[in-house]
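If your schedule permits, I should be very grateful for your opinion on a structural question. I have a record of one protein: its chain in single-letter code and its fold written as discrete structure tokens. Would you kindly read the sequence against the tokens and tell me how you understand this chain to fold? Thank you for your consideration; the sequence and its tokens are set out here.


***
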Amino acid sequence: MSPASDIPLEDLLRLPVVALVGRPNVGKSRLFNRFAGTRRALVHNTPGITRDRIAAIVDLGGREIRIVDTAGLDAGEGSDLAAAVQRQAREAVREADGILFIVDGRAGLLPEDEAIAQTLRRTDRPIAVLVNKIDEPNQLDRVHEFHRLGLEPLCGVSGEHGLGAFDALEALVARLPEAQLGNGRCEDDVIRVAFVGRPNVGKSTLVNRLVGSERVVVSAEPGTTRDSVDIRIQRGEREYELVDTAGLRRAALRNQKIERGSALMTLRSLERADVAFLLVDASEGFHDQDARIANLAAESGCAMALLANKWDRVPEGQGEAVRGSLERALGAVVQAPILSLSGMTGMRAERVLPLAERVYAVAKRRIPTAELNRWLRETIARHSPSMAQRGPRRRPIKFFFATQTGVSPPRFVLVCTDPDAIQSSYRRFLENRLRESFDFEGAPLRLQLRARPRRRKGSASAEDTAENSVEQTE
């Protein structure tokens, strides 16, 4: 796939990009979170936590910049995974307009810092050295040792407490070229798409395929992605924000604090997403954990579809049986479309973003009240709810009217005589009929059954009129 059709948002807005670089465990992610104003990147005292480039837009007194947190630059790359991580970090440095070189004031100047400085001195981009972990004014003397790096200016900062951090960032940004004006896009036009699933089902490979470059680290090692990685691209007139998330294992198997933090980041990404694509390994089938993740996506309110990845590994002649098995398993959780593809080979990958557009539009759909009430009348005539048992007497349940109260996800209120007496199976019947009648495939529906407000004696309301047209036949 050629990346020419995927225009990065940086090329549209041309926001200045500031990269945070340095060796592992010097506090880059903590400073990044300080600048972003939220816990956007994982922070832990284990070196090498950050593996992908994490980005956020920061407003500095009316001027926006894009800051990028990178993996720690390390001369010894070691394994294939480590090599991929380092390529990501170096690519971020090449793409940056300015660089914040982070060093550890507690540990002092190390040979690894000098090796990174030697590389950075070859660039013509503005650089500032941030001597981190200067948490008290009496520790500022530690900054002087880093003059040996031959880079200016040097700033003592504290990612933990924020001391001097924004002053250093603003000073660097003042040396950057002015941002060009964008194309007048509206943030509401951006579809935020989260790719979720178990570890090692191919989320990062597919995201890289859609972007057209190795934007996120890919490795055969499960759990390679730890943070949620946001990437903006444009196709035609539509912009998408692709969110590659950490694989979700069952809670009992998350035996590390790092992995629990990654799971939390994934859940936060779902909360902010418009569309959730659940990836499953088609060659392995649908697991219980896939069903749990599908439930999480539905509960978050995302429009959803299932991507049966690694379809190229499904034995010839078994595709129909595998697809049928996936449809039955997913249908027990949520009604959503299924797309079979291969992120590795690119098979049907071009259908992913049109599918996101489709389910996004479904979640935004509004149904006129008149149509809803015709649907309600026909649905009740087809199958009425069980009688309500109140004491020794059984009374029929009457529905009065229905109305849509919101979108993303679509929300509906159905007014009836006794909501508490309606069984959960009948609620599911109403939801399924609503989904089928108005083609809400892929959108989680929210149905609220509400009792009709008591009327004052002698008063009339719109509900009285609706009662005559929608009332259940006794």
Q: What stands out?
A: The mean pLDDT is 79.
